[in-house]
Amino acid sequence: MDNQIKKFYRTPTGLLAVLLAAAAAVTVTAQTVPTAKIAARPLTRDDLAAYKLPSTLELTGGLFTVGVGQPLYLEAQLDIAVPAADIVGVNWELTSKPSGSAALLADSPLTKDVPVYEPSDRLILQVAGRTLLRPDVTGPFVVTATVATRTGTAKVAQTFIAANYVGINTCTACHSGGLADVKTPSWSKTLHAEIFKDGIDGVNGTSYTSSCWGCHTVGYDTTSSSVNGGFDDIMTKLGWTPPAVLKDGNFDAMPAALSNVANIQCENCHGPGSVHAGSGGDTIAISVSNSAGVCGQCHGAATHHVKNAEWSNSMHATTTRDPSGAGRESCVGCHTSSGFTGKIDAAKAGTTYTPVDTSYTAINCQTCHEPHGQTTPDGAAHLVRTLSSVKLANGATVTKGGTGLLCMNCHQSRQNAATYAPSTQGNSHWGPHYGSQTDMLQGVNGFTYGKTFPSSAHKAVVADTCVTCHMQAVDAADPALTHLGGHTFKPSFAGDGTIPPKDMVGACQTCHGPDVTSFDFALMDYNNDGVIEGVQTEVQHMLDELALLLPPVGKAKSALTIDATWTQRQLEAAYNWQMVKYDGSLGIHNTAYTVALLDASIADLKAK
User: Fold this and answer.
1) I need a labelling partner for 176 at 20 to 30 A (CA). Which of 188, 231, 438, 463 fits?
2) Which strand (E) or helix (H) includes residue 503?
3) Buried b / exposed e across 247-261, counting CB within 10 Å, b at 16+?
């Protein structure tokens, strides 16, 4: 950073003043118009393929901190409730830029059919207009969008910071236990920290080309305008050429200035840090984003980097926004990414979890993975945020579940059936929580009528429990790739007319044999109708039979409408009906326990 920029950021009229000016620029006319905002859209290889965009477009994580000469794909977003025909247009302005900048706004290369990035945002937001900014010097750039609709006009502004890359040595100076925290020591033990080293040292095979370096190094961008201290710039400056033979010692032989920007580092995820470091660590000069685009810029490149595409097809990507916001503090610990990470951080620190951020964020990569490697030792291999034991509402503690322990933090019924079912008056929200999978898998916390029920061996013989079955790998040539398994967390795909339906039964076959080709495989006549059908069909018949015995009696139903008129006996049976229904597996997680719960409930209601 030159002396002029340093002086600018150290004065009261520096970066803070620019940001305050940007905030002051946000106005809305007297007419009513939905809230508008400016976003930097991430761009992945999956996007290039899906929307037939030029393969030469530079990828980006959509951060507000960008390398000098690299693109910001900006978009003005509006509430999807505004009819598209009512959007008159967007007027873009570059209202402030650093001294010496000649940057101008330009037409965005993203076409109209490219939606907003986050799957959850697509449910509520639409693109009103786009532009492109390619900052040419370091410093803050303020962009203003005036969005005109038939009902009014909104004017919004956003500040972006352009900077140069500084590499891991600069980050380590503060983030290794000195002035700030200890993130770099834990990061140094992750696979991210050695991916380029392993590549040129031959650990990952005999071929390692520059096509991988855009993700495996810092700031690698060979576009002529992108001169910002990235790996390619240092490589050119030093005249370094990659080794002809991949072998141990290649990385250690690299110039120190080049290895400083090799591997996947802080700036890959937080953006270039020269302004951040030069301002004494000002946090508004670096990006900390919870967008899936941060990971998607590298993990979204099918057919071999499919994690982002899988996640985009998961329920986690579009988790309902209802349990978030003020008044939902008890919900955000599982229903938002920031809520969950806050809850786990509190547990690690041994403190009481008190939600601070109740805003909605989808359950995404950063929710389950701790990218700095600050995780429990047994979760370090995949950066799993925590694999500590999990306590259920009835007091049972799950200590063995492998990587599935992470899932169990949220996928549980959150009620103690033994005390709740026989003593709590019915209402429209009565019953166990919607994710009772852990209770069901463990064979606990249903209403047992004082009896001892059998339980399947899944919890003991499936080492990684949830992960073993729900995250099975799908072959790259399989047409169902990204529709099930992996980070979709879906063990089944219903088909879509072009891709046939499929159950991922590979994990089942390891114990049940190759004859199992569907989850709905026949075992016994559980509902005693004289016909042996598939397990899931049998359990569904039992659910249907129990539903007929619950109000309104004799009426078939797929959901229960519970109110204060229900007797406690009906509620006890209803608890088990809901627990099985909310488990979602129709007996596959724990056939013995599922059948016992339903059978006991049916028998109790028939005996009255």
Assistant:
1) 231
2) strand 502-503
3) eeebbeebeeebbbb
Q: Which of 545, 521, 546, 515 minimizes the C-alpha distance to 535? A: 521
Its pTM stands at 0.92
pLDDT tens sequence across 484-515: 999 999 999 999 999 999 999 999 999 999 99
Each residue of 256-267: pLDDT tens digit?
Answer: 999 999 999 999
Give the residue, 69 or 321, on which the prediction is more confident.
69
Query: If we measure between CA atoms, which residue out of 564, 556, 562 comes closest to residue 578?
Result: 562
Tell me the pairing of strands 152-163 and 65-67.
parallel
- Residue burial 576-604, b: 16+ Cβ < 10 Å; e: rest: bbbbbbbbebbbbbbbbbbbbbbbbbbeb
Give the whole-angstrom CA distance, residue 268 versus residue 322: 33
Alpha carbon distance 133, 192 (integer Å): 29
Rounded to whole angstroms, how far apart are CA atoms 142 and 102?
A: 14
DSSP letter at 377 equals G
Residues facing 91 on adjacent strands = 146
pLDDT of 203:
97
pLDDT at 33: 52
Q: In sequence order, which residues have a C-beta less than 8 Å from that of residue 316 and are 6 or more positions away?
A: 362, 363, 364, 367, 489
Q: What is the pLDDT of residues 449-492, one digit of tens each?
A: 999 999 999 999 999 999 999 999 999 999 999 999 999 999 99
Q: Where are the alpha helices (DSSP H) in 476-590?
A: 506-512, 535-548, 568-583
